[in-house]
Model the fold of this input.
Amino acid sequence: MQDDEVSTTRVSGWDKSDPIMQSHANDPSANADGTDVAAPRRSAVNVERAYAFADLSGYSFKDRCLIRAADLAFYLTIKLIGGTIKFEVEGWENWEAASGNDHVPIYAFWHNRIFLSIYFWQRRRIVVMTSQSFDGEYIARFIQRFGAGAARGSSTRGATGALIEMVRLMRAGCPTAFTIDGPKGPRYEAKMGAVLLAKKTGHPILPFTIAAKNFWEIKSSWDRTQVPRPFTRARVFIAAPIFVSAEAGDEALEQKRVELQTALDTLEQKGEQWRQSL
Done:
């Protein structure tokens, strides 16, 4: 597949600072009109918490130092290499479709593309699920440096608590994202998280992948993480948005998961075809 055979959009001059939508949610209260005047303030506090560094006082001094060191190391590596990449986009109209009519996207992509994904989608206040753990904390910190948020949930409710937090944040207008085969695989196997979130919120899933022409592969990691080589080309492939009905039962949810799997597999094939054509 040659470059002139597909419709692409160059990223130079592309506006990465779109504001998030404002929250319209009101909480019931004892007020005579049935609304709580403090609700917008509480909502703003809850939203901004996702974008703020968490307190590290529960960690040992050694772990606090390691978390801060890992955070900065990943941030600087992604920023320095990412700044040299020449991006192209195929399917930007699908992002526009997923972002219209008061919708915000639920981004879904493979775990091993996290390096370029963080850089390309920076400053869009996208909330990502992270664990309440040593690894989860330094990951949360370096993605927050790129303008993303972290939904940690609670230490007792784990991923379920984080998913509930993502529902609340989406209702406040925040886009979200899933490394859809994470956190530990199997590699390239879509899980149900994004589908459940789409059902609960009414917002669409937006599958995408990023193919780099030249990259290093960390073969010791379960996902064979890809680290792009400096100054390489990369193409972002975006599929059509996937909507999930609020009435969807187990069978319908599984069909949507398979639809997401198929979309990501197709994008992966397109990316490999593009790489082979260069």
